[in-house]
Amino acid sequence: MSHLVRLEDISLTGIPDDELGRLLQEIIELCGYAWDVHHRLTYPEVEAFYNWCRINIAGVTNEELHELFLGQDFLSLRQARGFWKLAHIASSLTEGCVEEDSDWATQPQFLAELSQFVSKHGLYLTTYCDIGRPSWEEDPSAIVAIVKRYMAANLPDPSLRIEQQILKRQERCQVLSAALPIDKRPEFDRLYLSAFSSLHLREDHVEWIEQRPLALLRRVCKAFGIRLHALGLIEDPLDCAYFTLTELYQFACGISIAQALRELPARKSSYESDLKFKPPRFIREAPRSSPDDVSKLLKGMGISRGTVSGRVCSVRSVGEAFEKLSWGDILVCPEIGPDWTPLFSIAGGLVIESFAGGMLSHAALVAREYRIPAILGIKSACSLLDGRYVDLDGTTGLVEIGRRFESM
Length: 408
Known about the structure:
By secondary structure, the chain is α/β, with parallel strands linked by helices. Among the domains are: 75-160, no CATH class; 297-404, Glucose Oxidase, domain 1, CATH 3.50.30.10. Helices cover 52% and strands 10% of the residues. The chain has helices spanning 2-8, 17-40, 44-56, 62-66, 75-94, 108-121, 141-153, 158-178, 185-230, 245-252, 258-276, 318-324, 362-370, 381-385; strands spanning 297-299, 301-304, 307-314, 330-333, 349-352, 374-376, 388-393, 398-404. It has an 8-stranded mixed sheet with strand order 1-8-7-3-4-5-6-2. Strand 3 (307-314), helix 12 and strand 4 (330-333) form a beta-alpha-beta unit. The longest helix has 46 residues, at 185-230. Residues 286-293 have low confidence and may be disordered. This is Phosphoenolpyruvate synthase-related protein.
């Protein structure tokens, strides 16, 4: 962590080319190390705590154990609260107007809060793990777009929900501890503290491993782009995204990159063509059933209890979700990571195709924080539920498919 912060504090202005090259190498090594750590993290503490409780507390349920982890303060949740605060300030300036021609985003009060938000969360990339895309620090308009979603939803102050969740957690902890013999309680406390801390490490590591190192790598690549542009070698400094990291390092070492420069137009054209390509939903033969003749009842794993009825918003990426999701929609997607967290304030319910993480996945933890029904492990849900109204039961894991709706 200290290594990353040190690199972030280095000014790239006026740094010699060879030193910029060495810095590029150092950051590449840091990114590799970070992802190596990412794949080694296993977090056995939570499962060990659950198993201990099942053995030592008669009749304890998973739902009761889940309550011990409510009221969390993950970085992704703090980020979502930051969006709410921005939306609250914007609404107070415009009486809730979110029209494109509104000037709330240029008001000093909003800009001051936006500046604070960017100082805390600005290194998040607008497209997860894609250094070819700008960070929020570079493109605050992406933040403003999310704020508009929050304004349209007219969300309540999240602090009340957090206080209620913390109270529920504390009450459950007291009940379960009281159910144990006195000599067992110190072990309960030790395992609980270890599990609670482990969840924070698992959730917050995304910023230190998957976001900030890559945002730092993008900064250095942009510095190369600025130099290449100043030499008249490329038209736009952001064209640095079309070079390999090896080619940028070669430039720093004074090695010719003439071949890469000749290929640049073709690389840009190929990239733009790839953006327009829509991959097939199935690599092999598609399921024979269509949404009109599939069973009206689908079964998955309920990870956050409760029931909800609503219109499905089926998406394949977080960017698509921010564009399409409306207040109360049932969000259906292949999988979810921490960068999806701001959407939990808007969604009425959640269905995920993947089983990854189960009851202790990011989706499960955050859905329970926001008290929205959620289900994992419904294969092909994006295709089967697209364009439908559904009834979702996060307790039983059942989804009942209703009628179609007309797309806008």
